[in-house]
Amino acid sequence: MNSEREKIVVGLTGGIACGKSSALSRFADLGWSVISADRLAGEILASDRSVQIQIRQRWGNDIINSSGSIDKAAIARIVFNEELERKWLEGILHPIIRSQWILFVQSCPSPKCMIELPLLFENNLQSHFTCTISLIAPSSMILKRLQSRGLSMNESESRMNSQLSMPQKVAMSDFVLWGGGAMEFLTHQVQQLDRTLSSRSIN
Q1: Neighbours of 4 (CB within 10 A)
Q2: CA–CA gap between residue 105 and residue 162 (Å, rounded)
Q3: Are 186 and 136 spatial neighbours (Cβ–Cβ below 8 Å)?
Q4: Which of 94, 103, 146, 182 is deepest in the core (most CB within 10 A)?
Q5: Terminal-residue alpha carbon distance, the chain
Q6: Nearest partner of 142 among 171, 173, 169, judged by Cα
């Protein structure tokens, strides 16, 4: 995909609760065409009948909420406590998600495209991108943010441990943004990186 010389295609990743969604939103404000793998996953769970049937067959009615839709919180409790179950779900969702963001890039009229992929490095997707960006933050802050979302300490640690460590993501990234500070500082970093990437515009 990075052979499409008229486009800059950036993969945005990083640790959980490090500010990826906030950074993506700010890049969008600066004219980037953006898409989120997490958002795509939510849409698939909500609308893909085949996926819903497979999930229900594997985990039963406990993962169906009162409205009849998939209970994402119930699924999270399963997959972040049992690696085998997480791998099974990823095996269903990831090919669909990947086909959708690849189509997004191919059809995107903007010369600057960005895809938020929490598991970019875990799934060895670097070759799809012109460059990669990682968001990082202190572990103590990540735990605090996750617990503010209603997760227990064990649940928070399970989610953190399901990804590569922060030093590993930093070592594999082309650029790193600090997501452990004030929102104004994250915005400033995004603005600076936007200027850097835009200056690389490929003719």
Answers
A1: 15
A2: 27
A3: no
A4: 146
A5: 16
A6: 169
The CA-atom distances, in angstroms, between 143 and each of 34, 153, 155 are 27, 7, 10
- Is-contact 169 12, C-beta < 8 A? no
172 contacts 165 by C-beta, under 8 angstroms:
no
Residue 86: CB atoms within 10 A of its CB come to 17
What domains does the chain contain, in order, with CATH numbers?
Answer: 8-198 (3.40.50.300)
Per DSSP, the three-state class of 156 is helix
Residue 141 phi/psi, 5-degree rounding, is -70, -40
* Partners of 8 in beta bridges: 112
Please state the pTM of the whole predicted model: 0.91
Within 8 A by CB and 6+ apart from 62, the residues are 74
Burial 180-191 (b: 16+ CB within 10 A, else e): beeeeebbebbe
Question: pLDDT digits over 8-56, tens only?
Answer: 999 999 999 999 999 999 999 999 999 999 999 999 999 999 999 999 9
Per-residue DSSP letter, 200: T
**Rounded Cα gap, residues 61 and 43, in angstroms:** 20
The answer to whether the beta carbons of residues 25 and 179 sit under 8 Å apart is: no
107 is written with which tokens?
């059809």
Q: Which two tokens stand for residue 187?
A: 């915005």
Q: Are 15 and 160 in contact (CB under 8 A)?
A: yes
